[in-house]
Every structure is written in structure tokens, then in C-alpha cells.
Amino acid sequence: MPALQSVDDDISQVFRMEHNKEILTEFGKRIQRCYGCFIAYHLKDMYLGEDVTFFCEHCKDENMFHFDQFAQLLDISKLKEVAEEDHHH
How much is the pTM? Predict the structure, then answer.
């Protein structure tokens, strides 16, 4: 039975990873103004500054993190997209 448990755990982990990708994709669709030029962009196209401000490709500097980088560090359970999903169950 341990082999079956391992398969179940692996499948469960794949589903969680795919679910997390979907949540981050939704989160990335949020609109945010660039702190430098004040043009609105999707969050997925922005960079996070040290003081939790967001910048576009044109206004960023080398110390900022792209969405793909900082999204990996997020606690997705705190995102609005997860809270809304929980209300639908």
C-alpha cells in the first residue's frame, strides 16, 4: 500500500501545483499603475520595488524583481483570488 500512497501524494501535489499556477495567472491579471510613469499595466508585466511599489519595464531598475520572481514568494492563501474561490464552495 505505501506505493499507492506515494502515487496519490504525487497526483495531489501535481493538482496543487496546477491550481497554484491558475491562481497566480489570475493574480497577474490585476491592473496596477506604474509608480514611475503612472501608466496602468497588468501586474504580470511589472516589477516590484524595495518599498512595495510596482514599476513597468521602462521605469524599473536592476534592483527590482519581475512578477515571475516575486510571485513565487507569495503566500497565495492570502490573495483575493483564493478568498473568492472559497466563497464559491
Answer: 0.67
